[in-house]
Amino acid sequence: MAYLTWLARLLFGAWMVSNGLMHFIHLWPQPMGSVPLSKELTAALIDSHLFIGVKAIEVIAGFSILTGVYAPLVMLVCLPVSFVVAYYGEFLEGSRTHTGLLIVFVCNLIICLGYWKNYKAMFTLRAQPRTEGWSLMPVRPAAPAE
To answer: What single string gives the DSSP state of each residue in 56-114?
Structure first.
């Protein structure tokens, strides 16, 4: 599993960095899609400036995954992005030439499974908040000295 996670991290991180940077460097125009619905989605993301945020997340997440800095957290942040990428390629475009976009989502899931021990505590059925060392009770001022 360690080698599979390592390979998925390499593929996912390289894909995220390269595709994220292409939006800011403009080596070639942004592909708008080949069917009307995918063209509308891409245009809406660009016109609403949400695409800038998505591409910034891709660049930051890609470098984070490649270096291993905050990798478990970043993988959870990337799940919505990689899901939309896979959905775009498989269902909006509808072409099997975009299967590579599904691989992005699969790599994200494989990496998340590799970090399962970091997520295990989040799936506790009846979790209790931490109480030692701090309290949610308001701090009352000390009585004035007489």
So the answer is: HHHHHHHHHHHHTTTHHHHHHHHHHHHHHHHHIIIIIS--GGGHHHHHHHHHHHHHHHH
Task: Identify the burial level of 76 via C-beta atoms within 10 angstroms of its C-beta, where 0-12 means exposed, 13-18 middle and 19 or more buried.
Answer: middle
What pLDDT, in 10s, does the model give residues 75-115? Answer: 999 999 899 888 888 888 876 556 778 889 999 999 999 99
Quick one: DSSP state of residue 125?
Answer: T
Q: What is the CA radius of gyration of the chain?
A: 21
Residues 6+ apart with CB under 8 A from 112: 72, 75, 76, 79, 119
Q: Which residues contact 141 (CB under 8 A, 6 or more apart)?
A: none
Report the SS3 class of residue 29: coil
Distance CA 133, CA 110 (A): 36
pLDDT tens digits, one per residue of 64-79: 999 999 999 999 999 9
